[in-house]
Each structure stands twice: as structure tokens, then as C-alpha cells.
């Protein structure tokens, strides 16, 4: 009965609703001790469901309208490559769907079944083999009560197109996001052309995710939007970028940083950076705004708070957060009380606190 009452993602977007996505899972769960770096596979959905459930709940409380299944890299070829034994892709996919649905129902959120790039594509470039992998994942999801699909984390538009073509056979809405820069995908296909190819393949929502910082992500989606407009095509726009500053990156994104993946804390985006990002994304016409690796629940709350007027409400997590530092008015120290205002936080230039601090990566320890 609940699923019949729930408005679908396209119904919400077509009505002009702002959709707030959730944040990053693999990196947060790695830091919490449930995911192995390098592998980045999601067996925690089976091994430690309580950890995945808790993170889902934190993103929901922070204001997310969509809970993505924790199924990143959940293809049999990736699991085999990562030496995951005793747990099948089907088991992970089904457990992840159940966890996402359980939590989404606590807040009338939607469940997005996620598929991502495959080792098979890089190894064989076989359309038949790659599509068979996506078909197997899709069939797992269709056994469960998911609302729509997201094909994400593709650095080659060709593979993303294959994913969209398979997922559209389900009859469900499909979003597709690429981890690309304004320069285009890894073969140099420009963002505008990438968007055109995805929409022609059947994608209803297009955009970017991961690899680069929020403002770079917004710039890339703007280029995708321009490409669609020139081609006379329409689609909803989506952005779920990295939660770290990456000013010196290009095609390869944060994977090329010396700090990846264990020393990225000094590059963390603040909640105030997220306010600027959310406003910039909204002004660009993007209506599905979330985050990927590095985005914690408080970042998602910042999106929800920045766009509270447009959405018409604040998330439950804002009950414990004074907007723009307002709760600091209660502080005993006058210099801290003076920070209880928007102007202070909007104009703050945070220090890294690390001696010495450099603007970009410094490879002095070779």
C-alpha cells in the first residue's frame, strides 16, 4: 500500500520538486571499518547490515529524499577480482535493497537501485558481456521494491550507455551519472555529447557523480545541459560530486591525488562550502542535488537547509543545528557568540591547521 501512495522520482521532478540525494557510502564505511579500501566492494550489506542501515538513517534524517542501495561495484567480476568469497552479488544486491527500503519507508523516501562500472568493460570492451552483467544486477533489483535505477560512476560514456539500455528494459525510470570533468570522459567525449548519448539511450535524468569537487561538478552538468539544449533534447539534471577540494585535478579526478584514499581529511568540504554548492546547482537548473564520496550526513543537511525555502521544510536533523550558527548565541565566550551570524561563516577562509600547509599536493615524501 505504501508504494502505491509514494510519488515517483519523475513525478516529483516534473512537479518542480527539489530532490536531495544521499551521500557517500564506501568511503564512510571504510573509515568506520566495514569496507576494504582498494576493493571498495559492498559485502557489508550482508556482513554488517546494521552499519549500512545506520548510515542510511543518518542521510534520511539529514534530508535525503532518495536512499541508494549500497551496491557500488557489486558485479560478479568485481567481487571475484577483489577476492570476496562466500557471498554472491545476488545476496548483496538483495540485502542492500531490503536495507534501503526499510529506511526509506521511515521517511517517505525513494529507493534507487545502483549499478556502476565493471572490470569487464576495461578488460574486454565486449558489449555483450558487459550488458549481461548489468542484466543480472537488474534482475536482482526487480525482485525487490525499488523505485528507479541509477547508473553511476562511469568514466566512459559508452559503458554508461550500455547500462542505460539494459536498465530501460525494466520499464523503470533511469538516471545516469558519469564521473567526468569539464574536459569530458576518458576518451575525450565532451560532457554535452555524453549527455546527448545518455538521453538517446533512454536516460530520464543525467549528470555527474564523484571524482571532482562540487563546483567542478556543477560546471560539468552545465555543459551537459548546453549539449542537450543544442540537440533539442530534454532530461532532468543531477549532481552528486565529491566531498573534497580538488583544484588541481582533471580527467582522473581525486584518484590522482597523493592523499587518496587515506589522507583526504585536509581537503574536506565544509558545510558552508555545501551551502554555496547547493545554491549554485539550484541556480543552474539542477533539481537532483546530492553527494558522493566524502559527503557525510551533515553535508546533506547543509543542502537541505540551503534549499529549505524551495522545499518548504527543514529536515529532522536541523532540530539539532542552529541555522548559520545561531545556537552559538548561547555560548559563554563573547568571541564565539559573535560567530552566530551568516556573514561570519559565509566569508570564513578556513585554515588547514597543518604545518606546513600547501595549496596543492606536495609530493615531498618520495
TrEMBL record:
Name the positions where Zn(2+) binds. 210, 292-293
**UniProt xrefs under InterPro entries:** BHMT, BHMT-like, HCY_dom, HCY_dom_sf
Q: Name one GO biological process term.
A: L-methionine salvage
Pfam families tied to this protein: S-methyl_trans (PF02574)
Task: Report if keyword Zinc is assigned.
Answer: yes
User: Which GO molecular function entries does the Swiss-Prot or TrEMBL record give?
Assistant: betaine-homocysteine S-methyltransferase activity; zinc ion binding
Q: Per its record, how is this protein called by name?
A: Betaine--homocysteine S-methyltransferase 1-like
